[in-house]
Amino acid sequence: MIQPIQPRTVSPGALRLMAAFIGSVCINVQFYRFVRPPHSEIAPTGAEWVGVRGRMRFIGTLFFFLAVASGPASASPDACPGNPDALGTSRVLTISPSEFSQIGSMQYKQTLPLNDHEVVITFDDGPLPPYTNIILDTLASQCVKATYFLVGQMAHAYPSVVRRIYNEGHTIGTHSQDHPLAFQRLSLQRVEYEVDDGIGSVDSAIGDAKAVAPFFRIPGLGRSKTADDFLASQSLVTWSADVVADDWFRHISAQTIVQRALQRLEAKGRGILLLHDIHPATAMALPTLLKELKAHGFHVVQVVPAGDRPKSVPELMASPATDRGAWPTVLTSAHSGDNAMTTRRYHRIKRVDASKRRSAAVFSDAIPRRSKRGI
Ligand SMILES: [Zn+2]
């Protein structure tokens, strides 16, 4: 089970109950004027009062239950601790692979059933300190829950961060073992390896396979029929996205990431937002992005898989690697090449359309490879 969700600052449930109470009082007064006994110009008899009061109680009770039943199930009266202006997480959406095999309007017909101005925030390619930790700090400060698609190699390298992500209530899916280039060109054998070993590495890092959601995002969104069919056969939900913010572009600024995310979300009205928790610009953009999402009336939805999950997993001591390069030192050193892993994890744009429309671009990124088992 996930940790309790921190809702919006002003509880919609409390407002609903208050409105229902006032409404039921008003309606009961009107109701009494209609149903009052014919002798009501004079004081009603005792028997008449019993009948009128009974009907009034019935109507009031009916409105009370209607008010409670009509609200979102996840609404909670608790505010975000220490931050009354937090964006928060407005509700939890539970999905199963049988209902949602492929989601994300960028590539598939189906997407999540979100209401107007609802957004699902997702992060790919991590974990990678210090950026993942900075992003987790920002999310915690706003009581926002996200969905992570972790790379097997990265989870293997930073298991303590994987467990932190889970224990802070976020959803964890997977994103292949090695994040290969051109996933769309992989053989079935290689697809199986990337998917299965990716899940296995994240399972090992987190220490409990039940903690890992059956959610998979194809690296670089490089879908193919081979990959789609295999993922469906494994009862995995294949996630694409509805909106990207181009945060994998080299030298993109935090300000531009915020602008593109907001503009594209406003254009769609709702959606799954794809970000990456391995980039300094994304970490820098997130505080402003969350603030602007709230200012623009967006509400965050967390997506979880159907079924039980552990409430938490045992924490691990951070490895020395996770302490390397404290923020913000790495922000500059990453660009100057001091952080070899970060500098090698760049994304490239491959045009798939002779018209060179950016919207038709397929992106992929490169990460350090380890030896494959003869694949
Ligand atoms: Zn990726």
β content, as a range?
A: 5-15%
Q: Can you tell me the overall shape?
A: globular
Which structural class do the helices and strands define?
A: alpha/beta
The profile of the biggest β sheet is: 7 strands, parallel
> What pattern of helices and strands is seen along the backbone?
HHEEEHEHHEHEHEEHEHEHHEE
CATH architectural name of the largest domain: Alpha-Beta Barrel
The bound ligands are: zinc ion
Helical coverage, percent range: 25-40%
CATH class of the largest domain: Alpha Beta
The CATH topology of the largest domain comes to: TIM Barrel
Give the quaternary arrangement of the chains. Answer: single chain
Q: Could you list the spans in which at least 5 consecutive residues all have pLDDT below 50?
A: 1-44, 58-77, 323-375
Task: Count up the domains.
Answer: 2
How big is the Rg? 25 Å
Number of strands: 12
